[in-house]
Amino acid sequence: MKLELRGITKRFGSLTANDHIDLVVEPGEIHCLLGENGAGKSTLMNVLYGLYQADEGEILLDDEVQHFSGPGDAMRAGIGMVHQHFMLIPVFTVAENVMLGHEATKFGGALDLAAARKKVLEISDRFGFNVDPDALVEDLPVGVQQRVEIIKALSRDAKVLVFDEPTAVLTPQETDELIDTMRQLKAGGTSIVFITHKLREVREVADRITVVRLGKVVGEAEPTASNSELATLMVGRAVELTVQKDEPKLGDVAFSVKDLNVIDPLGLKVVNDVSFDVHAGEILAIAGVQGNGQTELTEAIMGLQPRMTGTVSLNGTDLSGLPVRKVLDAGVGYVPEDRSEDGIVKNFTISENLMLDRANGAPFVKAGSLQLAYRDRFARDTKEEFDIRAPSVETNAGNLSGGNQQKVVLARELSRELKLFIAAQPTRGIDVGSIEFVHKRMVETRDAGIPVVVVSTELDEVAALADRIAVMYRGSIVGIVPGDTSRDVLGLMMAGEKPTGAAA
Questions:
Q1: In CATH, what class is 3-235?
Q2: Which pLDDT value is given to residue 501?
Q3: Alpha carbons 59 and 381: distance in angstroms, whole number
Q4: What is the tens place of the pLDDT at every residue in 171-194?
Q5: CA–CA separation, 146 vs 131, rounded Å?
Q6: Are the CB atoms for 409 and 344 separated by under 8 Å?
Q7: Domain 242-331+417-503 has CATH 3.40.50.12780
Q8: Where in the chain is the domain with CATH 3.40.50.300?
Q9: What is the separation of C-alpha 471 from the centre of its chain, rounded to a whole number of angstroms?
Q10: For residue 257, what is the enclosing H or E element?
């Protein structure tokens, strides 16, 4: 099916999110829509999917003009969408999620769950998804949940499939599996719109690339274009794609974790006797495939894991077992890996989110009164410094793109006085220009003599930032190696193999 967008314009008050955008996606083509967060990519696709109504322009499928009053119309026309934040009911099974909104019934009005299960198995077998139709969604890894979203779209005979930042929450391995799936879909004749800001993925899978900046199409490129060329089109300026940093000026050990264990609600040890030290002025990266205890480790450090043993100390002060408030007050900055659930309050404004860590005292609160003028001035300055793309600081954080939500979290944590900075997946889901900025700020934090702990599944990020790398596997640290250790060695360690000479 051929998709054509002509002159699509979408405004939100004084903000023009899409400005007369033209786009053509040929049948059986993977067309990448590349751009920074806030460039208008997702808005454009939400217009296509019927979630928004365009102020101007038209949508054509096989040269026929379409009028979508909602997603139901778009789906009936053959358009499917896999959203960045999955539209699944966690307590429902896979089959129940797939049939939701399109419930087939048997004689007497009973739901035909067997038909939904059969459909899941058919599509799962066709693409090698290995998805159990009876599994609860909340029990599935993120990568498998995404396959459920794809199965939902394909079960409704989608001929055009939109992937909105699909790799933002995936590990490198899951990303490779998704790319294979996209190629299979293309081979079967499905047209794909792939929204992303990750240059490697674009060059690997795209047939054609359209670049959007500030709501406008600014150019088209071939997959053979260099990373630098694509980044310049995206951002509108030359972008430094490598992290510039000097040799670390190490101080004394400032942060120490000793014999840390975490037991999950089922009684399983998910963090197993983990110990490491971080010097003042050092970045320690914790690498590993998602789900090997990294989440629980950072949560235990922050006081979010009640069933833990061992010690956590910062500059000689024991933080073990302290509530989160006291850990933050000790000077710990924390970026959680799930920004939308744990990093922001969606129905709070940007201003309100930026003061969350400091809502219990001066300068934001004096004599029990919120200092609105100070808060809003601080928010405006911070919004500009961190390039948070939003109409104003009164915009609700839940209305921001994923990358701009991440910027709010980073801005809040990095704009206060820190003694330790912990960042879990700090650049997950943010664009190349923002990554450059975030990495620069993290190196500046390290150069200011503050210990930094980065947890990342992105090996490129780990290699670029780390002075030392600790690799986790099944809850334990396999070894701690220098920051310039090769990807091959790190890959073996991520599979549980301890390299010669690695620290315990």
A1: alpha beta
A2: 60
A3: 40
A4: 666 778 888 889 998 998 999 999
A5: 11
A6: yes
A7: no
A8: 3-235, 242-331+417-503
A9: 21
A10: strand 253-263
